[in-house]
Amino acid sequence: MNEILKFENVNYFYQTKDDEIFAIDNLSFNVLENEFVSIVGPSGCGKTTILSLIAGLLSPSSGKVMLDGSTKIDRRKIGYMFQRDMLFDWRSVWKNITLGLELKKEDVKKKLELAEELLKKYNLYNFKNKKPSSLSGGMRQRVALIRTLVLEPRLLLLDEPFSALDYQTRLNLCDDVYDIIKKEKKTAILVTHDIAEAISMSDKIIVLSSRPARVKDEITLNLAGKTPLKKRDDDSFRGYFEKIWGELTNEEKNN
Amino acid sequence: MKKKITNFSLAHKKYVKKLKKDKFLVIFFRIFVLVAFLGLWELLTYTKALDPFFVSSPSRIIKQLESMISSGTLFHHTFVTLYETLIGFLIATVLGYLIAVGLWWNEKVRKVFEPYIVVLNSLPKIALGPIIILWVGAGTNAIILMCVLICIVITTMSMLSAFLNCDEGKILLLKSMNANKFQILWKLILPASMKDFISVLKINVGMSFVGSIMGEYLTSKAGLGYLIVYGGQIFKIDLVMSATFILCILAYLLYAIVSLIEKKYRN
After folding, report:
1. Which residue of A has its CA nearest to B195?
2. CB–CB of A84 and B169 under 8 A?
3. What Å distances lie between residue A166 and A137, A143, B176, CA to CA?
4. What is the residue extent of each domain of chain A?
5. A151 to chain B: closest CA residue
6. Are the beta carbons of A103 and B177 separated by less than 8 Å?
7. How far B189 CA sits from the closest chain A CA (Å)?
8. Do A88 and B177 touch (CB under 8 A)?
């Protein structure tokens, strides 16, 4: 399979007036096409920094971040989904979904059709002209996901997109999002501190150390073909969970 | 989606009835306070408990207004003040807003001008009165300039802080969608700060009247501020009170227009 993303010995320092924070330490990994990769690590280890590097919002202090083999990152290939839904209250659901299209100058007719289709497919078509304030938390995140998918990104970045939701909504939305991503044949990187969520969604998990972030372990999962909710009942789920839990606890003890 | 309920329970009817009753009471007492105030004023001056020479009285104000309406002077003075206020209001709001956009756009320029804006904000603008008159001459221009000076700094400061308070996450979202700075301004910063803009409008309605009346105190041949100063000088308190009364109505009308804009925007 094709390699979409490659980190090659990436280092990153945050500069402040009195300090230089070493956030990313010689990080190398890759992500293949159609793969769902999760990045887990202790809180504050620099997970969001990694996503910002991928999205081209930050540039590495040294090393290479390559998207489709190029270090010059084309932001149009990337869809970023945030912890909060970031919907604009003053725009209708439809206007929110087509926000990214408004910013482009190319012909977007085909993508508008895709937007309509996605809304219908994920039961939001009746809310097309409503304001986001009349939607539930789960629906809002689904709208945010569609807003991202409409731009047809090659690579989806998910920054703890479920953490602001209640438990039940969260599990259901995990299933939905997983389903959507697999159906639309997207490559995705999920950043989370929820181990169970990572195991239930991913093909591969990258475990990071605490700051500065290094790759501590890379685990390929053998749970394909089940929904995230079903995976939680799988016999091997517990084994994976304990392995990652052990690694993270170990990491926190050492600090 | 939820169905709309059409057959309400008794409890709901009771609740609606109570709401209506409460609303009625508020309106009733609002009018009551006004009538009681005016009535008491009239009564105390009629019985000479208070000297109408110093405090005037509702009936004398009405008489004064009647004579000014029949001579046409009332409309003239009202129009002059309204004109100065509206022009000052518009110039200050538009210019202040544009300056705020400029300062948002360029962080370095913003940092350079920050202390100057703070000083201008704390400076009592009336202190500039003599300079204004020397520079633009006595009369309408000086009054409008005073009005602009009073409103513009607060407009710029309020709007700038509204722009800077915009959700960083949303800016990041637009950046991740490859938006340029102008698009971030146009699609996010300006619509997100609409609420703050409406409150700036509301503040400016009041402030622009302060500006025009203060300007008329300094230099004028007509206007409600002129009537107030003139009436004070010749001890004609009826004139002062009448002009103040008209000013109350004008200020309320302008505020009501802004509220109407606000409602329209919300829908």
Report:
1. A90
2. yes
3. 9, 17, 27
4. 3-254
5. B177
6. yes
7. 11
8. no
My answer on whether omega of the bond before B191 falls inside 30° of 0, hence cis, is: no
Distance from CA of A98 to the nearest CA of B (A): 11
Specify the CATH superfamily of domain A3-254.
P-loop containing nucleotide triphosphate hydrolases (3.40.50.300)
Structure tokens at A186: 């997207």
Going across the sheet that includes A78-81, the strands are A78-81, A155-159, A187-192, A36-40, A204-208, A215-220
The amino acid at residue A128 is: K
Cα A47 from Cα B61, distance rounded (Å): 73
Query: What residues of A are in contact with residue B174 (Cβ under 8 Å)?
Result: 103
B177's CB contacts (< 8 A; 6+ apart) are A75, A99, A100, A103, A151
- DSSP code for B2: P
Contact A90 B191 (CB under 8 A): yes
Nearest residue in A to B170, CA atom: A86
Please report, in tens digits, the pLDDT of each residue of chain A (255 residues total). 688 899 888 899 988 888 888 888 888 998 998 899 999 988 778 888 899 999 988 889 999 898 888 888 888 888 999 888 899 999 999 999 999 888 887 667 888 888 898 888 888 899 999 999 999 888 898 899 889 888 888 899 999 888 877 888 888 888 888 888 888 888 999 998 888 888 888 889 999 888 888 888 888 887 777 778 888 877 788 888 888 888 888 776 666
B37, two tokens:
């105030």
ipTM score = 0.85
